[in-house]
Design brief:
By secondary structure, the protein is of the alpha+beta class. It has a domain of about 180 residues: Mannose-Binding Protein A, subunit A (Mannose-Binding Protein A, Chain A, Roll). It has ten helices and nine strands. Strand 5 and strand 6 form a beta hairpin. Helix 3 runs antiparallel to helix 4. The radius of gyration is 19 Å and the shape is globular. It starts with a helix and ends in a 6-residue tail after the last helix. The structure holds calcium ion (CA) (2 copies). The site of one calcium ion (CA) has 9 residues, from strand 8.
């Protein structure tokens, strides 16, 4: 998988560069505190902001409000009018520098104040990097994209880089997809990446016996809110447990090791390449660490942008 193919597809995009720097500089967008957003109050999360994992298949995840609005608009007699209303709301949201997403407040010293999850940018979605494709989803590794080559970002900024392209951090639901990403890491000598994996330890995760104990059952994919299998078992349909058997404390992951050092919880899921002489494996890592990312198409964001931009080719 040469870089040439990639470079060709994604020749440096001055606008994208400018956009990313703006996001980086903008304290309203770029704060670590938005991790708190996930449990936040319902209606503002229609753009796919994260929330606690789905309880059951029937339990409609928070974050589907937007789709419901759109679906409703398509079936009622006043379709045109409603579409106009929805479109205007969206236009306002996209036009305003401060998107209609909860501002997040944080009490923790390490967190930067007031960050948001980014909205998708239709032009960037249409020209998003497509390094490889698997089961209908496109993926890219940030270091292989010229405009992102030197980026090392914390977990939330990682999500936001992906989300502007109608993607999100990669989720590894199957062994096949996991092998694909492990291979990418191995063949390109990637030291580590962020994935979409997140511990449900924020507001909105309380009162969920199905997530207890947290270190075993509390993990989920923030891009689609699917739960991650129990951390201490080989997942159904897999031949191995992707969580590393070692780490800082020389015990199986997740180990929340940094908490013992500075009381920061290891709430985000990274793949590390032999950092602890343990091969390539999943690790719980504190979310402020800065790493390159692998992005994967987000059906939710692609559907949203295609529904709100008639004729757009994604
Ligand atoms: Ca996935
Ligand atoms: Ca760890």
């Amino acid at each position: 998988m040469g870089h040439g193919y990639y470079t060709q597809l994604h020749a440096a995009d001055a606008d994208a560069d400018a956009e990313l720097s703006r996001v980086d500089r903008d304290p309203r967008i770029a704060s670590y505190g938005a991790l708190r957003l996930y449990g936040g109050s319902g209606g503002k999360e229609q753009y796919g902001a994260n929330t606690a994992p789905k309880m059951t298949k029937n339990c409609e995840g928070i974050g589907s409000n937007n789709r419901s609005i759109l679906a409703g608009a398509l079936i009622v007699p006043y379709m045109k009018l409603l579409l106009v209303v929805v479109a205007s709301m969206v236009a306002v949201c996209l036009a305003e520098p401060k998107p209609a997403i909860n501002e997040v407040k944080s009490n923790q010293p390490l967190q930067k104040p007031g960050r948001f999850l980014s909205l998708p940018v239709p032009e960037k979605c249409a020209s998003r990097p497509k390094q490889f494709n698997y089961r209908g989803h496109n993926y890219f590794y940030s270091a292989h994209v010229p405009a992102l080559a030197d980026k090392r970002v914390d977990w939330l900024d990682g999500r936001n880089i992906c989300r502007e392209y109608c993607m999100d951090l990669v989720s590894l639901e199957t062994q096949e997809e996991n092998n694909l990403i492990f291979r990418l890491i191995q063949q390109n000598d990637v030291p580590y990446i962020w994935t979409a994996g997140r511990l449900c330890d924020f507001k909105g995760c309380e009162g969920r016996p199905d997530l207890e104990p947290k270190n075993i059952y509390g993990w989920f994919w923030s891009n689609n809110r699917e739960k991650i299998h129990a951390t201490n078992q080989i997942p159904n349909g897999w031949g191995y447990n992707p969580w590393s058997k070692s780490g800082h404390k020389k015990i199986p992951q997740p180990d929340n090791a940094e908490f013992d050092i500075n009381q920061t919880t290891e709430s985000c899921l990274s793949i590390l390449n032999n950092v602890y002489n343990d091969g390539i494996g999943w690790h719980d890592v504190a979310c402020y660490h800065e790493k390159p990312v692998v992005c994967e198409d987000s059906e939710e964001l692609l559907n949203y942008v295609s529904a709100t931009n008639p004729g757009i080719r994604l």
